[in-house]
Structures are given as C-alpha cells and as structure tokens.
Amino acid sequence: MTMLLGFAALAVDLGRMYVIKSELQAFTDAAALSAAMELDGTDAGIVRARGAAAGLAGGPHAMKWDLGTKPITEIAPSFAPGDARPDPQRWSAKPKEAGGIRFARVSASAPAPLVFMRIFQPANESVVAASSVAVKSADAARLIE
C-alpha cells in the first residue's frame, strides 16, 4: 500500500507540478517578448516594458496557472544592457540608465498544492518557477533563454 501511495504521489503531484511549470514558462516567454518589444532606450520604455509584462497576467484574456483557474501574481521583470548576451552582473528591476538596455527577463512563480506528497514532506506545497529572457533587436524581439 505504501508503494502504491508513493507511485500516486509521483504520478499526480509531479505531473501537476510539470503542468504548472509549463503554464508559467508559456507566460514568462510571452511576457519577456512583450517587455522586450517596449524597450527603446528611454525610461518610459522601461516603464512600458514593466507594464507589458504585468499586462499579460491581468485583464479578460489574462494568462493563468492551475489549468487556467488562478492568476499569476508573483512576477519579477528585470532588465540588462549587453550586445550579443546580457551582462549577468547588471540585471536590475529598476535600471539607473535606460540607454543600452536591450534585454528583458521575466520570472514568475506559483505555489504548487500537493495532494499525496504532503504525506512525505512537511510543507503542503512546493514553489514552481520559470524564467525567460528576450532581446530587442532593430525591429523585433526574440527569446534567448
């Protein structure tokens, strides 16, 4: 019986965590692309980029998690300068200088409620997270991570 419960924990809870991870990854991909498209080297572009990332989580067509039932609320956009790759030391949620900012990273997380695995671990939920990075080129944005 214990083995059966263990397999149920793996099948149901890990499967659910995988679905939540996929939903968050789809959101961060879209949010990073939307944010990168707003970057134009100005402070107003940074503000628009933050709004574009958050805008996908709100409104009537909002992207959601838990099979489209719960809003994504833990969203963290950040920005970095760079040429071919972002400068890993200069990621900032509020960059001091907007000129040269070409990269947008959006991270999102959500609690994954556990059904069976809570028997084996004290916490009732685990955190699932995803992150994506997009770069703004002359006329388009593309994902790089």
Describe the structure.
The structure is a single chain. The chain is α+β, with helices and mostly antiparallel strands and 145 residues long. It has one domain. The protein is 34% helix and 28% strand. It is built from two helices and six strands. The chain has helices at 2-38, 43-55, and strands spanning 64-65, 70-71, 74-81, 101-113, 125-136, 141-143. The strands form two sheets. The protein has a four-stranded antiparallel beta sheet with strand order 3-4-5-6, with helices on one face. It has a two-stranded antiparallel sheet with strand order 1-2. A hairpin with a 4-residue loop joins strand 1 and strand 2 (70-71). Helix 1 (2-38) runs antiparallel to helix 2 (43-55). The N and C termini lie far apart (42 Å). The mean pLDDT is 87.
